[in-house]
Amino acid sequence: MHIMGEEFILRGSSSPEEMHKVGTYVDRLMRSLAEKNVQMNRHKIAILAALNLADELLKLKEEKRAHHEDPNERGGEDELA
Question: With CB atoms 3.0 to 4.6 Å apart as the test, which of 11, 38, 40, 68 could cross-link to 44 if both were Cys?
Fold first, then answer.
C-alpha cells in the first residue's frame, strides 16, 4: 500500500480489502490536504489528517449516541397514539 508515495505494509484483523480501503482513504485525504497546504511538510499533513479523521469519528459517535438515546428521555415522540 502506498500513502503519499511511501510504501506501507498493513497488517491487522480486518480483511485485506478493508485495510486497502482504509489506506486509500488516508492517502486521498492526505493528498487533498497537501494540495491545499503546499508549504506544509508531510509530518504536519499527517497530523492534520489525523485531526480531520478524529473529528469525523467523534461527530459520527455523537450522531450514533443521539440516535440511540433512551426513547423515554425524548418525551415519547416516536410513540403511536
Answer: 40
How many residues comprise the chain? Answer: 81
Domain with 63 in it: 2-67
Q: What 3-state class would DSSP assign to 3?
A: strand
Q: How many domains does the chain have?
A: 1
Phi then psi for residue 16, to 5 deg, are -55, -35
Give yes or no for a contact between 42 and 4, defined as CB atoms under 8 angstroms apart. Answer: yes
Residue 43 in any domain: the answer is yes
pLDDT of 68 reads 85
CA–CA distance, 44 with 32 (Å, rounded to integer): 13
- The whole-angstrom separation of Cα 1 and Cα 23 is 7
Q: Give the model's pLDDT for residue 79.
A: 55
Under 8 Å between Cβ of 1 and 7? yes
